[in-house]
Amino acid sequence: MSLQKGDKAPSFTLFNTEKKKVSLEDFKGKNLIIHFFPAAFTGVCTEQLCTMRDDLGYYTKLGAEVVGISVDSLFTLNKYKEEQKYNFDLLSDFNKETSQAFKSYYDTFAFDMKGVAKRAAFVIDKEGVIQYAEVLESAGNLPDFVAIKSTLEQI
User: What's in the keyword line of the UniProt record (predicted)?
Assistant: First the structure.
């Protein structure tokens, strides 16, 4: 069963590209947008994260922080973040636990890759409650950025 609006967000602790642990609890008292993406250095994933990068000022004005999560290693994500000049944390879910907890997980992805994060977007409020949840079955689709913004404006 997928996560829905009103559900408590699953707790997580992951490493960012600076090799520091980042937890859901670090964002208590803040709104958080989580973007799951299948793989660094791919076209649609780059478009998804660049959209967030380019709109980060808008989200910041609404009191929201942004993180991106994939099953890539933190070393791969570090290079990807550097190359694309992302201005938010990328978190490595290398052990695939967070993607599974958020029900954003392909058992088998393209080219028979096992255990890859689905493209997904979640808006989590200051109390850790999910206010928006979108998990896409097709990795070729992008999240609904208008719905994400609308959700943030209402909380």
Answer: Oxidoreductase, Redox-active center
